[in-house]
Amino acid sequence: MTILILASIAYLLIVFSSPEDKNLAYLPRAVVVFGLSLACFTVLLLPYDVANRADPLLLGDIGGGIDVTLLWYIVLGCVTLMIVIIIPFCTFYYEAYDSSNPSIASQLKSAIGFTLGSVIIFAICLVVLWIVLGTAEIPYKSQVSPMFSVSNMDWNPACTTCKMDGSAVLSIPVSIVVYGVAILNILGWVVFVIFGGVGMGALPIDLMSEWYHRPKPLTLDQYATEKKRLAEVAEELMEKGGELEKEQKKQGEKLDKKLRSRVHAFKILVDALQSDQQKMESGYTQGGGSPILAVGKLLLGILWEIVIYICVCVC
Known about the structure:
Largest sheet: 2 strands, antiparallel
Number of helices: 8
Strand content: 5-15%
Mean pLDDT: 82
Low-confidence stretches: none
């Protein structure tokens, strides 16, 4: 199963990775494969834990006999390591790259410094929260009953003689390891709710937008006109790119906010040009692509909007 998961994730990474990253960026690829594998292991470990449990109705049953608690500690420890150290380190390492003055030592220095700072901040927050709120409080309702013979338990399974004795709270001290995992789980659910909600809402809009902006069939004259227009846009972008490169060399490693915004806007324009070029080629060579696929995206987007509307009304 482990080999199958790793092979499937590696295959998906190869299929959906950019051709520009071929034979490059091995570290982030390894992080992606390891991270997605951990996500699969975490999900599959729950039914494995249930299957390994002993049957409470059978005396002397030890279940599968495997220490699944240790497996949970190993998997969740790896997840914590990924979230707190590995992913931040890779992010800071590649963010510190300077095309005008590439230096691995400089990237490592910056990445280690920022990662160490992140780990210290996380550790301080974890310890403070654990000291202040490191107890799990479970509310419960207590019941009392007069004594009766054990042999009569089969005749009174619902405990009809029980009376409410009030409510109370059971306080259980939590280890710092379990508390750290719980904190990361809470943060993960918050991020999942935000990004998952935005993604679920944006999906139908993207599908309908793809239908609206689908490639249109082009004649030879229309193809030549569009190709000329895109060539003019490409020349303008090349000029802007040269100017941005000169300004980047002047500022060195630390770019000001204004220049970073201009670089980001330039990348968006380049991506838009590439998209227009692909649409132009598809419109001329393939007649705009499959109409069934385009209409399918429209219908799926409308259906998804209806599902979202029903869920909002029901909830």
